[in-house]
Automatic annotation (TrEMBL), chain A:
Family affiliation: Belongs to the bacterial solute-binding protein 1 family.
GO molecular function: maltose binding
InterPro entries reported for this sequence: SBP
Species assigned in the record: Arthrobacter echini
GO biological process: maltodextrin transmembrane transport; maltose transport
Keyword set includes Signal: yes
Keywords of the record: Signal, Transport
Lineage: Bacteria, Bacillati, Actinomycetota, Actinomycetes, Micrococcales
Name of the molecule in the record: Extracellular solute-binding protein
Assigned GO CC terms: ATP-binding cassette (ABC) transporter complex, substrate-binding subunit-containing
From TrEMBL, chain B:
Biased composition (Pro residues): 1-11
GO term, biological process aspect, one: transmembrane transport
Protein name (record): Sugar ABC transporter permease
Ranges of Low complexity composition bias in the record: 12-21
Species whose genome carries this gene: Arthrobacter echini
Main location: membrane
Amino acid sequence: MPTSRRTPNPVKNRPRAAALASILMGTLLVTGCGSGESENTLTWYINPDAGGQAAIAEKCTTEADGRYRIETSLLPSDAASQREQLARRLAAGDSSLDIMSLDPPFVPELAGFLAPVPDDVAEATTENVVEGALAGATWKDELVTVPFWANTQILWYRKSVAEAAGMDMTKPVTWDQLIEAAETQDKELGVQGTQAESMTVWVNALIESAGGSIVTNPEAPSDEIELGLVSDAGREAARIISTIGDENLGGPGLATQNENASLDLFQSDSGSFMVNYPFVWPATVGAVESGTLDQALVEDIGWGVFPRVLDDEAAAPPLGGINLGVGAESDNPELAYEAVQCIVSVENQAEYFVTNGNPPSNTEAYEDPRIEESFPMAPVIRDSLQDAAPRPQTPFYNEVSTGIQQLWAPPGAVNPDTTPEESSDFITAVLRGERLL
Amino acid sequence: MTSAIPAPPAEPTSSPENTPSVKTRSTPEKKARRQYSDRVRAERRLGWLLAGPAFIVMLLVTLYPILQAAFESLFQFRLTTPDEREFVGLGNYAVILTDSVWWRDLGTTLLITVVTVAVELVLGFALALVMDKALKSIKGVLRTAILVPYGIITVVSAFAWFYAFDINSGYVNSWFDWLPGIDENTNWFAQTGTALFVIMASEIWKTTPFISLLLLAGLAQVPGELTEAAKVDGATWWEQMSRVIIPNMKAAIMVAVLFRALDAFRIFDNVFIMTNGAYGTEVLSLLAYRQSISRLEIGLGSAVSVLLFLCVLIISFIAIRLFKVDLAGTQGGK
């Protein structure tokens, strides 16, 4: 363009600028709507991991041989923020939610926005699936999501401490035994005392292990929900938590301790027993390999099932993991379910465990020889998943959980005589819309 | 912050009869218009033309959401159950205002506002004096150095402060264990007092540069001859400060205080990152977030937001009417 034509004339140039702007806007809109999507592209909203879900997406895309293509889209890092984003998108009718990685506690709340699971898919994907994961995938006796991987906490212990305390670790132990051992050995227990979701996980596991439930009628509407906190089970849970808090058995950082912080504590010299997810194993082995921790530490680590509350009753370990849901507004629900079946295949679950440390929900996957090599505690994990109890399965889980977090943390402030009742009253008032959370 | 919208009829600095202030606005429009010359009127029109589009955009992006929030706040409405939407009138406001959580969070927010603004004012003034008096050769470097914290994204600085004080990864405990009350087992984020201390320290570190810049502009407005005259009369440094400099900077100080107070009152990032409101550190913005974003209770959350907005309006009103902050005063000489 000759320079003479560029004489700055704002008035003359204005229409051209406007035209340019509208073309630009138009392009943005077109690409925004299309984003290169062909008819058979499925979007899978995944929670952050070590790249395992993206690898599975790629593998299934290849296997589909052009029938569908899975693109992954990353959700925020913590479960609560994942729920917030998914809920907003689902409520707005976002059709890009073909496949979603869902945390089990949020399944009831979002169940109404999910496409029903076809019978043949339900049949094919629930065979050999551990009890806990199935319970977490169900809402009102109907399978609404497909179990993918299942997480649970087990008891990790330092063999040297257990031996010094004279404990027989071949049998399940109780919380009272752990408390006593920590006291006599002058060591600290690895538990999660921070005011976060992990607190509800702990409280729920204790109450369920004592034969109770946080919510006794989880399917009721918000103003009719009844809580089981004021019970022997609730008081027993409060007694255990408050003892650990009052006697400083959880270390100085207890009030802000999450899963990673309790692992740090467990790896330190004051470590003794810890309840935590399987990720701690690859994390510890990795730290030894990179030289930050001593090999002797790995050899000192033992594992068993989640500690009991009652001497004569098996514990109900926490349940986590990821289920896959298909959005009701998805353009291709049949294709999406076809892809889901590929994603949750036994082979993929085993591979995902080995590479990312997330345990399979399908018991068959545990037969894979690679698993025993990288996760010698896999049988304990599998058995724990069979006994695991989901957190309250109510559409108002967020209110229940946040209410528990606000009154059961820090552990030192818990009082077995008052905390169960106070939290029960508070959560009930919040659910009736009479209080802020 | 409706008060922060620049008054579109840009007052021509050349017309002395048009000193903009709250008082002259009350004079009847017609009478005032007759006093303006053609040139002033043309300039006013140009002012509207220039500022009008921005003003309309401002209305669209602020007024519309504000009105929608006010409307939504009259309903009991949960995002995940849109069919159960129910009109409750002022019920949401009644729930909020009778709840101790609201008053506790209001107290926390006010405490953070008052403490941070007061400390920042003192520190900011000292920094402004340093910048003002610094040798020409280092002035640029000094200003840049002082401004660095303000340039850092709040979320990033919140994480930096969090990790510095965190009991597991922090270095503060081992560096300052010679101070009474601090040892390797100090868990800063486990009690209200210490957690608020870190939150406020981070807030102060981050925004003092802003206040000091505003004050530096105010310092530059103090006529040199006044301080000269005071010096000649034998005034001490303190007398020059309290009798000459500070009185002449009052407008700049009040604007700085107002802007920072409004900002501090809406604090969110630091608390969200460091404690997420745990252990009595929840502030009003976080309360609004918890209701509308976490609980998806759009009605209740909107009501909290509307109340938060009213609080901000009240602060602006107090500052502008009672303390007579002249927002236009900083632009031209007094």
